[in-house]
Amino acid sequence: MRAVFFLGFVSAVSTLVAQHSFTPADVENGGRVYRGNCLNCHGPDGDFIPNVDFSHGKFLRAVTDDDIAQVIIHGIAGAGMPAHNFTQQQADLVVAYVRSLAMSAGHYSPAAGDKTRGKAIVESKGQCLTCHRISGNGSRVGPDLSDIGGFRRAGELAQSLVEPDAEIAPENRFFRVVMRNGTTFTAKLLNQDTFTMQFMNPNEQLVSLQKSDIREYTFLSKSPMPSYKDKLSSQELADVVSYLISLKGEDKP
Amino acid sequence: MNLRVLLLAVVTGSLPAQVSFDRILQANQEPQNWLTYSGTTMSQRHTPLTQITPQNVKNLEMQWMYQARSLEKFEATPLVVDGIMYTVQAPNDVMALDAVTGRLFWMYSYAPAVEARPCCGRVNRGLAILGDTLYMGTIDAHLLAIDAKNGKPLWNVQVAKPQSGYALTHAPLVVKDKVIVGTAGGEFGIRGYIAAYDAKTGREVWRFYTIPGPGEPGHETWQNDAWKTGGGSVWVTGSYDPDLNLTYWGIGNPGPDWNGDPRPGDNLYTDSVVALDADTGKLKWYYQFSPHDEFDYDSVQVPVLADMDWQGRARKVMLWANRNGLFYVLDRTTGQFLLGKPFVKVNWMDGFDEKGRPKRVAGKTPSAEGTQIFPGNQGGTNWYSPSYSARTGLFYIPSWVEYDSTYFKIPAEYKEGERYTAGAPRSTIGGSNAPGGPLTRLDEEGHGAVRAMDPKTGAMKWEFKMADVTDAGILTTDSDLLFTGGRDGYFFALDARNGELLWKVTIGGRAQNGPMSYSVSGKQYVAFAAGNSLFSYALK
């Protein structure tokens, strides 16, 4: 079943970046330069710098391969990115490697699905907006998906649909809370400190509690999201992924 | 006017007196003052003041707050001398404040050279005083003497080259007629040293390199030319034992930080404590906590000196909770290893040999694919001051519990003045420079605590758990109070005997310095910094 989602790697890559063609040797050599010069600040997955995430194709201002190469060579004054004494060829190798980071995880082609059909499933059959929110519609209790395509890879989204418990991001953690007076509820943890906790409850209410009033609180390692493995066909799942990956936050109200 | 001054002197019963070294040695005889970074040269960060008690601590209220004109972390511990507070606004503005009102008498702003490049914030941890002179190290590696009356600079010497990554961030230590400082820069391939300067003139009297040169004992623990760029930084204030005439300093990590390949060997005296003759700077003994460190386990903690009964006889010891996750007791006369035990989860070592050398666990070393190590890169504790109370007999540690980093190793080439770290540790918990945000971590993913250890056994007697980690030092009092704070923006008081929470206040910023206490006109104050501000509290 899941193999379906991991096809079409090569075609996806060519449409996504379609600028320079890189050989595996370029990527390997670029990786060497990257590890020696870039990894310390950017990290192995390229996501150490806020708002920059190479493995999700996120850059502060660069769009094209040539933009990236220029940033590598000249740096960004005032933003902490230093200039590098690289030749154009060396910079291009680093670009090859940086681009490869986005391709290597979640080998999945959004082209396999139809995003219009996917939108319809999300809004009706899938009942996704019962918990999620997209462009101002739906609930705030689950993660807002309005720009999910900007920072999640298709493969990750496909996995979350069929195995929602596999990876729950720390900001999406639900807790079961039992108060000293016996009241029990499930809510999303927004923040906490040594003495207090802040939640959003299922009615979208913001609730702040003193830990001294709480008898116990337990992280729910099982996500409140159901698995869609048997609820949607593989084509429907691909349609949903295609829709989600198209959401880049441009439609925000 | 003259009459008023005279009258004031008569009324307050004392004429302004110079801070002699005798006064610093006997600092506990004048507990209204705080004359050196950790309170006394024994560095226990413990005050004999008892006006604030477990019974009345709930009546503390803010007396004043000083909002720094600086967005840097406020890491300085203030000094207080006869009602005047001296401290530093980052990076290098020296201030004299009224300790009762927080009002400024004067400020001296030193402009560090643009070449200054401290690794981890343009910070300063405080001043030293001798006579009427204040001493400050600067982030561009100068040592300054400043007139405590008016803030005018008296002398200014360059200790090291900022262009090569050297900086001074800790409060200097005065011993006799000398001012002692050490150089930071362990992330830039420096060769660190500790140096003593004549307090009157700024002339260098002695220098101890934390990495031995050719022909010196310990040089054999380095190969190739690695000793030239081996780090060994110093960035927290040392201690002094007048009977032994020894000054003790913790030494930082070897460089490059996270890749030991270019520097085979134990890499002395990185990650060690050194005991130096205070007159000559000659090494009397050393103990290395983390031989051939690959995890940035700087041993820059404050050396806490205590005299206690040890297995039936009085012994001069040194208590040390190390960044590497282990709690130690050493004999401070000889350096003998007396006890070593983890105070948080540790997986890089597993026991000691008979001389106190840790046994490394095979495979626990940074790698290209990443290796998970406990404690993580910020350590089980770090530079934040611990406290020892002879009354409770307990040693109190600001601790990071269940905290790990995954260490990635990469090659690196030394270039003067550039970072030389050769790796990348990664953790769900950031260093103190990381932006604060909502905290949704689970306890088992790392949290902070005050841990109270019995030094005689290395056993934990109690723990006060925090949701977030802590970068705050600890102060204890003769009334058995413990003051500290944490990263989640509280400052609080615990019962030092059992860890019970007695009082707390939310101060909206990360507590990041060591709290201290003083009194003026019979009223006791507790001062601490959080965020960019300095606070002073006293009883209503």
Instruction: Compute the CA-based radius of gyration of chain A.
Output: 21 Å
**What's the total count of β strands of chain A?**
7
Q: Globular, elongated, flat, extended or rod-shaped: what is the shape of chain A?
A: globular
Strand order of the largest sheet of chain B: 1-32-33-34-35
Largest sheet of chain B: 5 strands, mixed
Radius of gyration of chain B: 22 Å
Q: How many domains, in number, for the residues of chain A?
A: 3
What key phrases describe this protein's structure?
heterodimer, A: 253 residues, alpha+beta, Cytochrome Bc1 Complex, Chain D, domain 2, SH3 type barrels, 3 domains, 5-stranded antiparallel beta sheet, two-stranded antiparallel ribbon, 9 helices, 35% helix, 14% strand, disordered N terminus, B: 540 residues, mainly beta, Methanol Dehydrogenase, Chain A, 5-stranded mixed beta sheet, 4-stranded antiparallel beta sheet, 38 strands, 3% helix
Could you walk me through the main structural features you see in this protein, from its secondary elements to its overall organization?
The complex is a heterodimer of chains A (253) and B (540). Chain A has 253 residues and is of the alpha+beta class. Chain A is 35% helix and 14% strand. A 5-stranded antiparallel sheet of chain A has the order 6-5-4-3-7, with no helix packed on it. Chain A has a two-stranded antiparallel sheet with strand order 1-2. The longest helix of chain A has 17 residues, at 88-104. Mean pLDDT of chain A is 83; it is low at 1-18. Helix content of chain B is 3%, strand content 38%. Chain B has a single domain, classed as Quinoprotein alcohol dehydrogenase-like superfamily (Methanol Dehydrogenase, Chain A), CATH 2.140.10.10. Chain B is globular and about 60 Å long. Chain B has 540 residues and is an all-beta fold. At the A-B interface, β4 of A face β29 of B.
